[in-house]
Amino acid sequence: MPVLDRQDDVFILDLGDGENRFHPDWIAAVNAALDEVEKAEGPRALVTAATGKFYSNGLDLDWLFAHADRNEEYVTSVHALFARLLSLPVVTVAALQGHTFAAGAMFSLAHDFRVMRADRGFWCLPEADINIPFTPGMSALIQSRLTPRTAHEAMLTARRYGGADALAAGIVDHATDEDAVRTTAVGLAQAQAAKAGDTIATIRTRMYAPVLAALRDTASPLG
What we know:
Layout: E1 3-7, E2 10-14, H1 24-39, E3 45-49, E4 54-56, H2 61-66, H3 71-86, E5 91-96, E6 99-101, H4 103-109, E7 113-117, E8 123-124, H5 127-130, H6 136-145, H7 148-157, E9 160-161, H8 163-168, E10 174-176, H9 181-192, H10 198-207, H11 209-215
Parallel strand pairs: 2-3, 3-5, 4-6, 5-7, 6-8, 7-10
Antiparallel strand pairs: 1-2, 8-9
């Protein structure tokens, strides 16, 4: 399960050492960590990271198929997590040490910056291959954070981007050695920690107003 730690002005949220899928309990644990980050005072920033082969493999499809009557409730909770991260009053950096797929990739896009391992691991939106269409909120998030060309390719072809390709496509901001992924992310976050507060939150909510509206639409989250 996710564990929150702090290094000087940087909160580090380790998402786990498994596939880090979006099980309801996992979502609740991430939200509890974000509660702590939000209520803290003074300079602060957030890095999300993971341990092992995966950063996140996305939705918990096993849970979802076993609870088909709760699809809308589940998707709404995922959307709410994306929206919360996108509007958080601190700068956020995702440290992608491993595979980052589907909702995990979207979760990474809700961060301000992304650092990816250069030599191994893929960033991918596989929905076209697994026959699960993007919700309106998910589409809005992806298209707000990627260039039109990259969003088109990533969403329609389910391309798997390695670190160098992800950097060239503008998906990530840095591609580096495995040992430097987390330290680079922490350095980026530390440099922006003084910006925490209401002003950055207001900038975010105005910059991404249409995306946040789509993600917070509880009337028809599936479209």
